[in-house]
Amino acid sequence: MPILTSTAAAADGLTLERAAHRRVAARSPAMFLFLFTCWFAALVWFGPRLIQSMDAATGPISAFAQAYFVIFVCIAWLYGLYNISVVTFAIYTKILSRFESADRVADEAIDVPVAVLYTTCNDFVEAGAASCARMEYRNYTVYILDDSTDPEYRRRVDRFAASYDHVEVIRRE
User: Fold this and answer.
1) Which of 37, 63, 109, 140 is spaced 20 to 30 A from 162 at the CA atom?
2) What digits encode the pLDDT tens for the residues 86-115?
3) Domain termination site, one of 55, 89, 108
4) Cα 10 to Cα 15, 26, 71, 104, distances in angstroms
5) Within this chain, do residues 140 and 74 fall inside the same structural domain, yes or no?
6) 85 CB-near residues (< 8 Å, 6+ apart)
7) Ranges of residues in the chain whose predicted pLDDT is under 70
8) DSSP string, 133-155
9) pTM of the predicted model as reported, rounded to 2 decimal places
């Protein structure tokens, strides 16, 4: 990600703060909804069994210890699920941001002119040059830098260049 300076922000008509907000994804409550849904499901499933374990208490001290254990287990589940959620959502966000940033970069770079240089000297390979000439990018030019001395290779290069719009041949004289 390019570093944004005050000059670059001013050129875009943005303040640094607004430019920084543009790069930060909107916060979503999805992780916390997932977290509390899983925690609630764990409490519904295991809660009755934990509360049933309170029947094993024989006195006030053991009842306190059992209650403390039940509360501790419930909080420990919340903490564990929180850590699992953070890691899971971090991985998900990283994977998702790769696709989004690739799309954004492709959209931003769509009009940047690109020059592809293909060099040859009595060894022109049409398949290699054709792979350069058939790019899916819109704004490009393939320059074949031909240092061939053999007239047959020069003719092959010229025929190839004539068959593509984005190909130009440059030779040293």
Assistant:
1) 109
2) 898 888 888 877 776 666 665 665 678 889
3) 108
4) 7, 24, 55, 21
5) no
6) 31, 34, 35, 38
7) 1-27, 100-110
8) HT-S-SSEEEEEEE---SHHHHH
9) 0.42
Q: Tokens standing for 147?
A: 């240092």
Structural domain contains residue 143: yes
Residue 18: CA atoms inside 13 Å, Cβ hemisphere, count? 8
Tell how strand 114-120 and strand 167-171 pair up.
unpaired
Question: Residue 59 is encoded by which pair of tokens?
Answer: 């006195």
Residues 84 and 37 both lie in one domain: yes
The structure tokens listed for 11 are 């050129």
Long-range contact pairs involving 119-123 (C-beta distance under 8 Å, separation at least 24): 119/144, 119/145, 119/147, 120/144, 120/145, 120/146, 120/147, 120/148, 120/153, 120/157, 121/146, 121/147, 121/148, 121/149, 122/148, 122/149, 122/150, 122/153, 123/153
| 37: in domain | yes
